Amino acid sequence: MKGYSKERREAVIAKMTGPNRKSVPELVEEEKICSATLYKWRKQARAQGRVMPEGDDTPEGWGSQDKFNAVLETAALSEQELSVYCRERGLYPEQIRRWRRNCAEANDWDRASNKELAQARRADRAQLAAMEKELKRKNDALAETAALLTLRKKAEAIWGGSEDA
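Now predict its structure.
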């Protein structure tokens, strides 16, 4: 900010936006301005609410806050206005629509997550009930076997063993 006029700074920031935007390394070469300064200017512009990419210069390199801001800015636009908005920023209307869907799904995540958890809990309860039923059946069979062995030993003790056999 010290050595650069406000007009030059705005002109360079403008080169970071729009459909023909340039990356910071490209602007370092072209404008002969330190990359740290350019990154700082971009960060300040974003803090002021300007919608511009956070990382790489592709639309998918935009940060979540920028995508959300773009969704808000375009919420009330007609198709034609949306197309103009997208051309100015190097985006496609489908990207804005996808970002809008993602925002809506993000707000519904809690309900969907709770529904999935409830289904998993029901399945776990059913599995637990089946395992408890199987365990009871095996315990009953074991108790019956133990009772038969005990009766056999008592019978042998009373009537004598089956030594003849």
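The chain has a mean pLDDT of 84.
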